[in-house]
Amino acid sequence: MSEAMQSRPAARTGGLTGAKVGTFLARQGILIAFVLFMVGFTVANERFLEPDNILGVIRSSAILGVMALGVTFVVISGNLDLSVGSLMSFSTIVVLDLHDKLGPALAIPAMFAMTLAIGAVIGFLVGYLRLNSLIVTLGMLSAIHGLTLTYSGGQNMDIADKEGTWFSVFGQGEALGIPVPILIFAALAALLGIVLAKTPFGRKVYAVGGNGTAATFSGIRRARVVFSCYLVSAFCVATAGLIQASRSMGSQNTVGQGMELEVLAAVILGGASLMGGSGTIFKTVIGVLILGFIQNGLLLIGLEFYVQYVVTWIIIILAVWLDVAAKRGRLLSPIA
Amino acid sequence: MAPGQLSTFLKRGAIWGFIVLELIFFSIAGEFMSLSEKAFMNWDNMLLLLKQSAPLGIIAMGMTLIMVNGNIDLSVGATFALAAIVLLDSMTWPFMAAMGDWAIPFAWMFALLTGVALGAINGFIVWKTGVDAFIVTLGAMLGFRGLVFMYNGEQPTSHLNWTLVDFAEAQFLGLHTATWFLLLVTAAMWWLMNRTVHGRNAYAIGDNREAAVNAGIRVGPHIMINFMIIGFLAALSAVVFYSESGSVNPNDGTLYELWVITAVVLGGTKLTGGSGSIISTFGGVLAIQILRKGLGHIGADTETVNLVIGLILIAVLFLDRQLNVRGKEALRV
Fold first, then answer.
1. Smallest CA–CA distance from A331 into chain B, residue
2. CA distance A302 to chain B (A)
3. Can you name the CATH fold of B42-152+165-319?
4. Which domain holds residue A143?
5. Chain A nearest C-alpha distance from B181 (Å)
6. Carries keyword Lipoprotein (chain B) (predicted)?
7. Which sign does the torsion angle of CA B234, B239, B240, B245 carry?
């Protein structure tokens, strides 16, 4: 891993050699793969490129996508967040429960506050106490799941009056012919993309993830940055929970179970390194869309949904392999 | 006693102290809160507890090896499920069915080979591509689960062989078959980690990979063998569990990796590699199982178990860092 880091500058310099073309291909491999998949599926089934289908795919990817935006911050800061699936179940259940008790106008901010509070706990443990993020969020995955079940008493949550509420707008509404979940996803992606790329906070996130010690010595408060990343993640999770709750108007306790790894897969597919310090919001969006379109394309050509698991596996390994290979300048690992 | 010695002592003994505390707590709390008349520290109850720790415990032994190596395996749950399907389905193949009970050893062999093969795939990819094991096995977790579904769709796979069930339910010297498997695996892995060159290399590689390479250890093949071992153990865990139950759902084993990692971390193994012990992992497995059983005993619901285990995991991490000087550096995956 450290060898890959050291050889990175070497791969960047030099003229337009074969190696450089190879590096370019490997770096942009995920975009190339995306285009190839789109072309392939279009040839295989003409319905694939129809606007309805495209909107449908993005709409169903929106929940995963919104969560992936937040996790991108956490991963770039050099940490992991495995608790997002559990936390999404929590926020979905809470907002559905509070909807009938307080009404939607109060339920939504209350749910955001509770989700952000949990995010703050994780951020405190990882940022200020400097505990290992993998274990902390693994523990929180389990703990939040328990919390959700305790809250709901193990029962499914349903909104009693599904017709007489404006709550459904977030998941089922449309504006200008575009489903609202897509608008939320796009708006949040644009906002967080600007925050990450154009603000001092965004640069600090990269600095902390790239080299935490150097960042500390240059006066960046590492703990505060990491803490903020988990707050961003929790905010995205709350938004995803809101879309999920509004779309289905009722939910099981396990609605987000397993999503943490799908989210991570999308972020990694987008090229963010688990070592921290690299990745962008744009690439994460591409990663999310690739997962969504592959799923849809495989269904359209008549394959069962679980074939996508195998395809996703192969794509993740190939994408990360190409990335690692480009950084070290050779295809196979030098380790004997 | 020097401060260093004290902290070492605390760390080594912590998990066993925790187990004793759990037992005392549940025995006392059980007197007041239990729904049943039986005491928690009942002999049969303890035997059952050991038996129920077996599926998790067998995989945890392999995970200790992987984590001492500085790697991680998130695909064990899916490997577990696929091995279980092969075990049960292979007994219905025509040539196997014709063999009667002689099909059992073959079915076991097929299941174990499945595990070894899946582990070999992971290990080979980690070795040759140099991609982090976390990502490789994260992908494999999805991919292997896909294979599970492709095998039999969303249908459960069932085959009940009474000879097999009798064997799984048998007790030898008072202990259940599953318990014997857990003890055997623990002993074998202890021997591997403490008495062989392979075990010593595992610690060396986890401690400092560059140095291990320079010392002439063939790190790649070593890592691949370790993944084959954990694949084998995940399959063995499935063999032990499904010989008795006789039916597997395609979603079985989901989140197993998280429970296993929790047990191993409770036992004090570091994610950064280079340290960890099989005996402590055994303690970690017992601690989790006592907690699950104990909370059930005093009438708590399953949700409380998740909550408590999650919080304990974080508390252990915090205490461990306070006790461990090296741990004060930022730990990163």
1. B129
2. 14
3. ABC transporter involved in vitamin B12 uptake, BtuC (1.10.3470)
4. 2-328
5. 28
6. no
7. positive
